[in-house]
Design goal:
The chain is of the alpha+beta class. The chain is built from 12 helices and 14 strands.
């Protein structure tokens, strides 16, 4: 599949997942907004109901007090006897105009005052008695109405002047609020309230009332008919409102999480696809390079074998010796390439099999330099060494550490600048608990964007249109694995067209 096709599919799927996430988040926000509005409306209805209950309680209290006072006066006047008394009741407005007036004859008994039925000379008939009872009920009604009118006028003009503590029973107010919240479906939510009088003075507060969170607080006048300047206010607070709203939309959270998981999985899948594609390209490059590396020695051996069939070669011992040497050298070269390919199996195992022993790294590097000097001098180069490690003893596999040093030097030869003589500098020194090794060259260098990839398997730094550098892309990956298996570390420092330095840190055999 082409890279452009993968990109198109990835972008389309990514936009689809992002759109789905956006829709889900928008839906959750809309639900939260709607639940907040429903909650606000329910609280307002509950507060309005509580306000009406408070007003009703006040009216009931005024009526009871007024009726009890009127009946008490009648009882005191009659002294419990049967003295008949005529009473006139009138209600007038503050401007002096008459509002209502009634007259009622009563007599005192041990019970409540009752309307008296007048008796005239002679015997009353049943219809007359019935009319008398009707008149009595009518008079009683007018009496009670006069009392109510009187209470209403007193409440309108005098109740607002009383302190709020005398008008409201705060324990009853708490019950009114609970009842209103239950009726509106939010009775399970804890609440706290306080009461503020007309002067802005706080006259009552729940012990655990908290002023924080203005979005969770609501206000309501206790007496809606009071003048605006004399209104007392109840302020109610819901500390658990946010959790209540969240719980109502929490069923959407799992779907949002699953969508996020799918999006992350999709992104990871796209990353794996591109990584596998890159590995495939590197493996194809590896196969092409391997074919070239194997083709050259095989062709040379084949040509040398054909020359041996020539009778003239057999008659010349020098020619025969030369051709035999070429076959031997190319066979060694072919065997070396096969061994490099077999090194791939190391990367599939968790850890390489190492034959550990005590090594003097200064002696090992000196031996490698002596062997490698001839190859460097072929390119008019030279190797300088500064082996200053006072404690050079490490516990390591001699063969693999030798291969590490050899591979790093061989890379310096492969990537030398054609217009500059090769210069290699090998150093050793000690740091606390570590033996440090550096191999520095003056080659073509490595770009910063490629520097972090050079230790990956099959990765080879691009050299433009030049194809004179052959290899499998396994050398530095092998070096990294061997150093890691020795519990060490390796890093590279490079500057383009200046050179590259590889720095290795290995644990010492004995640490102070």
């Amino acid at each position: 599949m082409k890279k452009s096709t993968i990109w198109i599919l990835g972008i389309v799927m990514g936009l689809s997942f992002l759109s789905l996430l956006y829709l889900q988040i928008s839906y959750i926000e809309e639900m939260v907004k709607m639940r907040n509005e429903q909650f606000d409306e329910s609280v307002k209805r509950a507060l309005m109901a509580a306000s009406k209950d408070v007003e009703s309680a006040e009216v009931s209290r005024w009526l009871q007090e007024d009726v009890s006072e009127a009946e008490k006066k009648v009882w005191e006047q009659t002294k419990g006897g049967g003295i008949v008394q005529t009473q006139r009741f009138s209600i007038s407005s503050p401007d002096g105009s008459m509002h209502s007036s009634i007259e009622l004859k009563t007599f005192g008994t041990k019970d409540l005052p009752r309307a008296m039925i007048s008796r005239k000379h002679g015997t009353k008939t049943i219809p007359q008695t019935s009319r008398t009872m009707v008149d009595m009920i009518k008079n009683r009604y007018l009496y009670q109405r006069a009392l109510v009118d009187d209470v209403v006028w007193q409440m309108v003009y005098h109740a607002k002047d009383k302190p709020i503590e005398e008008r409201v029973n705060f324990k009853n107010l708490d019950q009114y609020l609970k009842s209103g919240l239950i009726d509106n479906g939010i009775g399970d939510l804890d609440f706290h309230f306080k009461v503020i009088d007309r002067d802005g003075r706080e006259v009552y507060r729940c012990s655990d009332y908290n002023d924080e969170g203005s979005e969770s607080s609501y206000s309501q006048p206790l007496f809606l008919n009071d003048p605006p300047a004399r209104m007392s206010i109840v302020k109610i607070h819901f500390p658990g409102k946010r959790n209540y709203i969240f719980d109502s939309v929490s069923f959407m959270i799992p779907s949002l999480i699953f969508t996020l998981v799918l999006l992350i999985t999709f992104i990871f899948t796209i990353y794996i696809i591109f990584r596998q594609k890159r590995l495939t390209e590197m493996k194809n490059d590896f196969i092409n390079n391997m074919t070239h590396e194997f083709k050259t020695p095989i062709s040379t051996i084949s040509l040398a074998a054909q020359m041996l069939k020539d009778p003239a070669v057999g008659k010349s011992p020098a020619m025969f010796q030369h051709i035999s040497g070429v076959i031997n050298d190319e066979t060694k070269r072919l065997r070396f390439q096969v061994e490099k390919v077999l090194q791939m199996s190391m990367f599939d195992r968790q850890k390489a099999t190492l034959k550990m022993k005590e090594l003097d790294i200064n002696e090992l590097i000196t031996s490698v330099i002596n062997t490698f000097t001839l190859k460097v001098e072929r390119y008019n180069g030279q190797i300088d060494s500064e082996l200053k490690a006072d404690d050079p003893i490490i516990f390591a596999d001699e063969m693999h550490i030798t291969n590490v040093i050899f591979n790093l030097m061989d890379n310096a030869v492969k990537y030398k600048r054609p217009d500059t003589d090769l210069q290699l500098i090998v150093k050793t020194w000690n740091e606390p608990g570590k033996l440090m090794i550096s191999i520095q060259d003056n080659g073509i260098g490595i770009k910063k964007e490629n520097l972090k990839k050079i230790f990956e398997k099959f990765y080879r730094v691009h050299t433009g249109n030049l194809h004179d550098v052959k290899g499998f892309g396994l050398g530095l990956a092998y070096v990294k694995k061997i150093i890691t298996d020795h519990k060490g570390s390796i890093r590279a420092e490079s500057e383009l067209n200046v050179g590259t330095t590889f720095i290795i840190a290995l644990p010492l055999l004995k640490t102070d």
